Amino acid sequence: MKLIHFALIGAIIVVGGALLFTRAGTRNAGDASGSNVVMENGTQVIEIDARAGYWPKKSNARAGVPTVIRMRSNGAFDCSSYVVVPDAKFRGSLPQSGSLDIPVPVQEKGKIMRGSCGMGMYSFSIQFD
Questions:
Q1: Which letter, b or e, does each residue of 2-27 get, where b requires 16 or more Cβ atoms within 10 Å of its Cβ?
Q2: What is the C-alpha end-to-end distance of the chain, expressed in Å?
Q3: How far apart are CA 47 and CA 35, in angstroms?
Q4: Distance from the CA of 62 to the CA of which of 12, 91, 114, 128 falls in 20 to 30 A?
Q5: What is the pTM of this model?
Q6: What's 37-128's CATH class?
Q7: pLDDT tens-digit readout, 37-92
Q8: Measured on CA atoms in the order 99, 43, 69, 93, is the torsion positive or negative?
């Protein structure tokens, strides 16, 4: 009976450790910390990674500032490599590896801009504050 308890505790430790290690390397898809928004020469650049979806899914940016969405891909072969951003009047393919800048009109405070893949399976949003 003691052997079963030790085996069960050992299995729980191994599975728990594996879950912690695999989750530690993943990105928080809901992160809206703004760490993906930088200023370059007076233009706000919102960096979004595309591969099996978009990261971060939610971004916060400043309103009233010239803005560019920089879509970055690294071997994206799924539908996230085709981006649709209606408010920027953009619809097009990303390079398989590299980046593409999408100019965005100056946005008003409170505006939420949305983008998605061509099939609508993956999406992202940008809140302008």
A1: eeeeeeeeeeeeeeeeeeeeeeeeee
A2: 61
A3: 9
A4: 91
A5: 0.73
A6: mainly beta
A7: 999 999 999 999 999 999 999 999 999 999 999 999 998 889 999 999 999 999 99
A8: negative
